[in-house]
Structures are given as structure tokens and as C-alpha cells.
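Batch manifest line 332
LIGAND: iron/sulfur cluster
JOB: complex structure
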Amino acid sequence: MSQPTANFIEKQPNNITDNVSDSLRWPISQIQILLDLPFNDLIYRAQTTHRQFHVANEIQLSTLISVKTGGCPEDCGYCPQAARYHTGVDNQAMLSLETVVTAAKAAKDQGATRFCMGAAWRGPKQRDIDEVTGMISAVKALGLETCATLGMLKPGQAEQLSMAGLDYYNHNLDTAPEIYSEIITTRDYQDRLDTLEEVRNAGINVCCGGIVGMGESRHARAGLIAQLANLDPYPESVPINHLVQVEGTPLYGTAVLDPLEFVRTIAAARITMPKAMVRLSAGRREMSESVQALCFLAGANSIFYGDKLLTTGNPETEQDHALFEKLGLRSR
Ligand code: SF4
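JOB STATUS: finished
ARTIFACT:
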């Protein structure tokens, strides 16, 4: 296939359609064309889009805490918290409100503006919602934005979270629908979409992205981005995770993705969801500074910040500050 030209980039409108799915804002075929662009053309377009919609060189910092760890009944093939895999993760019951508030204060003192609370559940029970809503209200009272990732929500639960002051709910689509069942069998794609609808209807901002490097093709990455970009409206926050391979999980030993493919995925997310915060999420610790810099150039403008991401490591905060200094980035 011949490569699209730079001329193509300037002339191609965002709403071009193909004959397969002409009702979509972003048909997969068009995202595939983006991903196939010469690298420099893709990054140029992504950075140009980025500067039209965001303050250049500004990165939002989120801190993530696991409020309940391990023992999850789901079978996500990438996750060390699934009870059925032997990964050495220590189960931890629900943290106390005091512990969460102390962690949130520390995150704020270190410069985070958003505090995300994650729990390893298929979905929360009512007593879980009661506890988490207390945490949300307390974190919100500190002047932080709040985010939660608690699994699938039943009708009415999103409203309770919203009333407690939840700003964002994270629920990732993980990958393209065509290969979802190869990664997870205990729920299906529609379950994910249903929870996203609950969140949207409750007036909570949607944080939704996926994981790359799970052995998927470039076409499947285009499929993931298409799913996200065609949500109406598309998510306010789009975490793009790189698989962290954890021994004991089914995806351990997957062929490692070329880092430039990861950067291309970030760029496609930026171009197709121009107003979203695109978050460089899991897998950052395994990336060189150069790859992280390319991700920022491709339009990533949010990171998880802090020493730990649920159960896997994250770059030390000092390293992040040093990298920001080197790149002339400012946090917010
Ligand atoms: S990703 Fe979430 S739902 Fe899946 S096994 Fe891990 S904790 Fe459970």
C-alpha cells in the first residue's frame, strides 16, 4: 500500500467516511490511515491538533491509589489482581477513610490535581458504594478533582457517586471489540458500554481508554481508537496504557510492542479526540525518557504521578520532575 502524503494530511477533513461505516465520525479505515502515516507526518499533525485545543507544554498530574486490592473475580488477561492468577499480589481489604484522606493530602502536596481511587471488583455492592462515596466527598473537600474506577455500575450507582462529588469515572474499553473475548471472558464489550452510559447519564465525566501491547495488530489499535472516538461525546479523559507484563498473568510473555507503535497510538488518540486529556498511563516506568518525550510530542498531556499504579510501579516523582525540567514541561 502506498503511504499517504503530507498533502493528504492537510487536505483530509476529519469527517471523511468510508463505505463500511459512513455514519461514524471516525471510521476505522481513516484511523488506520492515520496510523500508517509517515511517523513525522503523524506526529506533526498530532502536535498541531494539540496546540489548537490545549496549552502547549502543560501536563496534568493525577495520582492513583488502590483502595481495595486483589481477589477480583474477573479474568482480565493483563491484570495481576485477578484472583485466579498467581501473581504474588497481596490482597488488601478496603482502606480506611483516614488512610485515603492522608494519601490524598500527600498527593496534593506533591502537585497532583486529581486523585483517582481504584478498587478490584467486578462491580461495587451497595455497602462498597457507601464507603467510597465517603472517600469521594472527603477528597473533594481537599480541593482535588476526584476520579474512581470501581468496575461495572448498576443503575442508580453512578448517581450516588455523582452526588458525592465524583468528577470522573474511569472504565476502560481495553481493546477493540473483535478481540475483546481473547483478553477477557467474564464480561463483554456491551457491559463496558452500558456502564459508560450510566456514567454519562449521571453527569460524570468519562475517563476511558485502553491498553496496547497485548499482541494486537495495528488494525486492532485503530479499532480501539475508533470505539473511543465515536463515543458521543468522546471521553473527556483517555488513558492509553502500555501492557505491563506481570508474571502469572496470561499475557506475560507477549511479544513486546515497538515503542514507536505506542507513540503512534497516542497521536491517533490526540487527533481523533482533540479536546480530551490524553493520559500516558500504565507502562511509563518501562519507557525510556525519549519515548515519554515522544508521547508528549504526540499529544499526551496527562500522567499518573506517584510511586505506584494500583499494583505496578510508576516513575519516582523526582524522576518526573527532572524529566519535566529537561523538556520544559509545566505541571498543572
Ligand atoms: S482489571 Fe479490574 S476487573 Fe479486571 S481483573 Fe483486574 S481488578 Fe478485576
